[in-house]
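Input chain follows. Return structure tokens only.
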Amino acid sequence: MKKTLSESFRIAIIVGEASGDLLGAALIEQLRKFYPHLTFDGVLGPRLKALGGKALYDSERLAIMGFVEPLKRLPELLRMRSHLCKHYRENPPDVFIGIDAPDFTLGIERHLKRHGIKTVHYVSPSVWAWRQGRIKKIKQAVDLMLVLFPFEAEFYAKHHVPAIYVGHPMARDIALVSCRGYRRSPVKLAILPGSRHSEIAHLAEPFLKTALLLKAHFPDIQFISPMASPAIQEHFLKIKAQIAPSLEIQLLDGQADTALADSDCALITSGTATFQAMLHHCPMVVGFKTTGFNAWLIRKLYKHRFFALPNILFNRAIVPEYFQEAATPDQLFQSLKTLLKDKSAAKAIEDEFFAMHQRLQEPTQDAAACAIIDLLNNRAILQN
């Protein structure tokens, strides 16, 4: 018998890190508008726990990166996955939702789907860029894929995987401002060298050397840099003391939105921060460096021609991007100098970012919740 909206129903949910916890909490709040007595359990972060979820495991156990760390912790992760599969097989939820962490969650989804449990994956893995053969396993694992970007829905439609474009919550959270009002003097540059120690280790030096070159060319330029955590700030300052001890940089405790909204341009590492800068309509130059081994693997496995998210979204080089040995202070400086001097070029980028921001705001805030409700009620899921 199908449940009515007024009845309680149970969700299993797994989130992999802080961003997944944020998405999951927003999704639960939206679903509770329709199912007020909803209950949920799984691998949860602090926001989901605060909403009353029962944590079978803490999401920090899935917050791992790179190629080596997952291998070191493989036995633990396999035991954890086996236990979750057994738990949900014996205590089936109405729907299982995996948020990000695809290497961990997709295997659980495939197992549960075989046992008749509805499965949803929220936030597509970068299958369009890495290991495209995974699309067959994704098709076996998910009843519905919820994607954050329009091009992802188009990719899944080509492969006949049910997918709904639900928009990116950051695009709704950041106000759509039609004109940033560029300063003439002093020029202000946001420096975002990353939120992980590995990023700081590889990018702080070239970014600081780039700032020194800019300071010599634009004596009045001001620098502002949001620091992801006290530990990241300490790491950054140690490198700054060696590379640019006298360079004045205003450091912020987090507050990346503040820095990007208040700057004429940004020097930024690849990742979500480039998307954040785009939503603030802030022109940028993107640099990315890693270990030699990781760079070799990326070149071997990565299939997309761009790595900066704005360039991927536009499918063209709307912002300069430099990878590994190309991310030199001189290269970064030359591109930033062009953007800072050519106001018409900066304004053209701002206009393009504004139009993309508008497009990304189109799905309603509860689009993900409504798609899941349609799945639960056996209504047709469109492939956008």
